[in-house]
Amino acid sequence: MKKSAVDWAEPFFGQASDAERLAQLQQEILSLLENALALAQSKHRDDKESVHALRVLLKHLRAYWQLVRFAVPRLTFQAAKKRMRLTGKQLSAMRDREVLMDTLLDLVESAPESEKACLMEVLKAWMTEPPPAPIPWDKVIHALKKERQAWRKLKFDFQSDTALQDGLAMTFTRCRALGKQAFQPDNLEQRHAWRKWVKYGYYQLKILRQLGLRGQRKRIQCLDELGDLLGREHDFMILESRLKESLSQSELWSEHWTAIQAVYEAKMTDFQEQSAVLQRRLSKL
Questions:
Q1: What is the pLDDT of residues 19-36, one digit of tens each?
Q2: Which CATH superfamily is domain 17-283 in?
């Protein structure tokens, strides 16, 4: 018999049927969606913390759909993916701008004194750019209500008696495969995908622990650290692209870019080394 990628979770799945587990999961997710709708309709919804919380919730929901993908109709799964992706974009512009600024300040801290002034000039220029368009809250609220309706009316289509475990196994199989590819040359696409599936694994294990999954603290902690690390790496990749765009259009390019690029590459090397350590630790759990 082929070994499952999540043998360590079999005792949990053996304690109750998939139907029972999915009913519990459904209630947990509906509770999250009620909280999200309350936040999206509150007077504090434009606060940085509120927008961030809603964006994180959407990432959780994408992970949960992956978890149940073998227990729901294919069209339902595809519609949910599309809905979550579109809603994420509607919430992303302001948050992406703030992350870009914060990442630039992080780079400033690591840069030699000779380059700090140049980078701060870039930051000042970015701060004078027009702010992104306001979040279309009516569309976000409509999407969250559709998501709530989808989970309320969801009829699970069991193609096997291990549908939920199969969803979790697929996540960890993808994590493992992408983790191996992520250290090959020209690996930017693989590392981006790896980050996504690492986050899925983290969110899935977190909610399964709420449903009674025992142990796995080390695995969850490792996934959390790795996901955060790969997220910061991704932020620096976006920053490098924007810096190139900004500096190449100014007289600062020839004088400063080589030194700034060296700081960036040192950061990326550090991310690669740290992620390799975490990947080895995860593979031993």
A1: 888 889 999 999 999 999
A2: CHAD domain (1.40.20.10)
